[in-house]
Write a structure and sequence with these properties.
Its EC number is 2.5.1.112. InterPro entries: Dimethylallyltransferase, P-loop_NTPase. It is built from 13 helices and twelve strands. The protein has helices spanning 27-31, 67-78, 103-106, 125-141, 153-170, 182-198, 201-208, 230-236, 242-274, 288-292, 297-317, 324-340, 361-369; strands at 2-6, 9-15, 22-25, 54-61, 80-84, 111-112, 145-149, 171-179, 282-286, 354-358, 375-378, 381-386. A hairpin with a 6-residue loop joins β2 (9-15) and β3.
Length: 389
């Protein structure tokens, strides 16, 4: 387990036994969860005295930069749900080609608008605005934080700026831009295409391929990775020799890599333009070093991307409660709830460290009474570290 105290924000990262990746954990919530997996925290509104609007976080960036990973980290930390804004991932099918997050990678975080649209259907930016706003409304009603993430910036622009800027009137937005230097990103996306082939890209596209269809301008067939495979898949059904087929496949994969690199350039141009629009206060987080730290990507991600982003969002939310006495009371209640969980019912984390966060010494005292020791005070954050009993 890795524990970071980044200014006044406590960040805990624990390696997932399923994916092997480090994931942000707010372990006090994990310890207080019921057997059904639902947090026993009251529903809350992400409004503050300074802003009566509900709050929404948007994670932007070029393809391959780690938008989905950051969105999942933020959702795990702040109690959020994710709304997908990738125009190809809204369709059913082609999970590998469109790089949909797997069930394991979602880490139990609810995702909206991933799949659900028939592959041949037309799904416009206006359709996305309508469905995304509906999802955001549902998330807010349940006291969760909406986090919109994806690379289709035209969809995000339509949602924010469309319909007379209705979204602006209803919600306050925090924009995060995960950026990676283009030479580094282009090398990564080329490697990623090779990984996608190993995971079944060719087989996926073959399952969608129809020799009677030559139009790749509608539905999921627009996805990079589908039209590029056309010549190769047509050759498969002929007497073309194997050497020629192999060359066609290699050419198709090279074209996929080239088109993906072109897409990243277009996405960056769009983000630069959006950042100049009124109200679009975009916070850039540089993830370049994550891609350079071979073998230490998780540690670099935590230090350079996850922690700074969590601090930005925490400031944006203003801790959701502005009155100092309200903060103290909420922290004390959290500690008291933990104390009510009997030793027999607490989850057993053999040889692991449990990290609990509180904002007051009153809460820390309650936690110590509950059997947690080694209290450390860092600025206005009280970090209580101990082992399960």
């Amino acid at each position: 387990m890795y524990i970071y105290i980044y200014t006044n924000t406590l960040v805990c990262l624990q390696r997932s036994p399923v994916t092997g990746r480090l994931q942000v954990q707010l372990l006090s919530r994990e310890l207080l969860s019921s057997s059904s997996g639902q947090y026993r925290f009251p529903m809350r509104s992400f409004k503050t005295r300074s802003s009566p609007k509900d709050k929404v976080v948007l994670v932007m960036g070029a393809t391959g930069t780690g938008k989905s990973r950051l969105a999942i980290d933020l959702a795990a930390y702040f109690g959020g749900e994710i709304v997908n804004s990738d125009k190809m991932q809204v369709y059913d099918g082609l999970d590998v080609v469109t790089n949909k997050v797997t069930d394991e990678e979602r880490a139990g975080i609810p995702h909206h608008l991933i799949g659900g649209i028939p592959p041949d259907a037309e799904f416009t930016a206006s359709d996305f605005r309508r469905e995304a706003i509906r999802a955001v409304e549902s998330i807010v009603r349940r006291g969760r934080l909406p986090i919109i993430a994806g690379g289709s910036n035209s969809y995000i622009e339509e949602m924010i700026e469309g319909a007379g800027r209705e979204f602006w009137r209803r919600y306050e937005c925090c924009f995060l831009w995960v950026d990676v230097q283009l030479p580094v990103l282009h090398a990564f996306v080329a490697e990623r295409v090779d990984c996608m082939v190993e995971r079944g890209l060719v087989e996926e596209v073959r399952g969608l391929f129809d020799p009677d269809i030559v139009d790749y301008s509608r539905g999921i067939r627009r996805a990079i990775g589908v039209p590029e495979m056309d010549r190769y898949l047509r050759a498969e059904g002929t007497e073309t020799d194997e050497v020629a087929k192999a060359r066609l496949l290699e050419a198709a994969l090279d074209e996929i890599k080239a088109n993906t690199c072109k897409l990243t350039c277009c996405q960056l141009q769009k983000i630069h333009r959006l950042s100049t629009l009124s109200g679009w206060n975009v916070n850039k987080v540089d993830a370049t070093e994550v891609f350079r730290k071979k073998g230490k990507e998780d540690e670099a991600w935590a230090a350079q991307v996850a922690c700074p982003s969590i601090e930005i969002v925490a400031k944006f939310l203003q801790q959701t409660i502005t009155e100092e006495d309200q903060v103290a009371e909420a922290a004390a209640q959290e500690a008291e709830q933990f104390a009510l969980v009997t030793k027999e019912n607490r989850p057993r984390l053999m040889n692991e460290t449990v990290v609990l966060a509180a904002t007051t010494t009153k809460a820390a005292a309650a936690l110590v009474t509950a059997g947690v020791d080694m209290v450390k005070v860092a600025s206005t954050t009280v970090a209580v570290v101990g082992t399960t009993v």
